[in-house]
Structures are given as structure tokens and as C-alpha cells.
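Proteins fold. Shown next:

***
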Amino acid sequence: MNDSAMASLNVAGDQIRLTLRRPPLNFLNLDMLRQIQELLESLGESPRGRILVIDSDCAAFSAGLEVTELAKEAVFLLLDQYHSVARSLAAFPRPTVALVRGVALGAGNELAACCDFVLASPQATFGQPEIKVGIMPSLAPLLLAPRIGLQRMLHMVLTGSPVDAAEAARIGLVYRTVAENAMDSALEEVSNSFRGLSLSVLELTLRAARVARIREFDDHLREVQSLYLNELMDLEDPAEGIKAFLEKRPPRWKHR
């Protein structure tokens, strides 16, 4: 693996594993997102694996987008690349599983929610804290509402309050919580459930199950990018929130 690699790909048997590698918290910057996209594209339209696993070799799954790249000058490229990764993952032609240890916050939570299944350790935490730094999530309304319902989604994105793994499983954000030392066996159990099936039929069934989400993706992303870039980033509070976060102080909102 290249020393500068922030993500790696490994195919073992019928499992494809994409691992996030930007310690300590896997903040998703532009270069890392480009690497992830290139790795996904390298698998082609008909990957030889039967299941795609997204995991992390850090203490966190991902704490979200790189805050220093959310400045107005850089945010367009970052958001566009992030949405390309999310679209590719959401439409991947094999079942996808996120293995979440530690935090999955902001874009990290959304990245996990792009997957068909989420397995989480009991210590995992999920949340959309963007509003606390004066910005908004771009994919959570699309991805979370079908899983956890409109009111729970609104509570997550409007308050920034996190949920622990047990609560995430109770509301349907997580497929299963699994003890840390049982994560590999739980993943093998999920993987085994797809063995012995026709890959062609599996792929078509996935496409049918995802029709509504995929259809909404492009329209949703166009509208959100417009709101984000043309309205949100023209406000004064986002710049103040990001600055306060980086300076580790409470923000001084102007409410404009």
C-alpha cells in the first residue's frame, strides 16, 4: 500500500473490503474522497466479489468532512466529490456493509447509511452534528428518513444530538450491534447469507430495492448543492461556526 494512501482495497475470497485509513478520525478530505472513488471505480460494473465491506483501521469510522476544507473557496469541490462517492456506494452492484467502530458523524454517518447494512460495536456513536458548527448535512434527509422516520431524522439534523449504538439499532439506523470480538463472525454470517445465490439475480434484486433512492439521488443532490453553495455559504454564521470549531471556542452567532 502507498504510504500516502488514505483508503485501501483488498479482495479476499468473495469479500471486497474498502478500508478508511486517515488517522485519527478519518476526516474525509478531497484527496481521500478521490482515492475512495478511484478504488470503487477500479472494481468495474461487475465486481468478482459478492459483498462490499467498508471499514476503518482507525479508532473512528469517520468523523465527517474535513472542516478546514469547508471554507467557501474549497467547499464546491469537496461536496461534489463526496456526493460522487455516496452515489457510487449507494448504487454499488453488490450488497454493501459498513462496519462501524467508534464515531460515525456527519458525512461518516451518511457514508454508513449509503450501505445496505450497518454492523456496529456497542461503543459506536452516530450523529449529524453539522448544525452545531453552522452548516447542514447534505445527505442525511435523503438517507436517514426512510430508515428511522421523518421525526427522528429531523431531531438528529436539527439538534446535532448523537445516538449510541443501542439506540441506533432500536430505531433502525443500525442492522445489528455486535461485540467487538464478534464483528468478523457477524460479517461472515451476513456474507454467508448471499452465498449460493445467482449474482445476476442478486444484482437485479438490489437494483429493484434501491429504485426509489437512486431515482431521488440526482434531484436531491442538485437541490442540496444549490442550497449549500448559493445560500448557506453566503451567510455569515457558517464561517463563524467553522472558525469557532477550529479555535475550540463557542460560536458567536449573528443569525444571518
In short: The beta strands are 7-12, 15-20, 51-56, 96-100, 103-105, 117-120, 125-127, 163-164, 176-177.
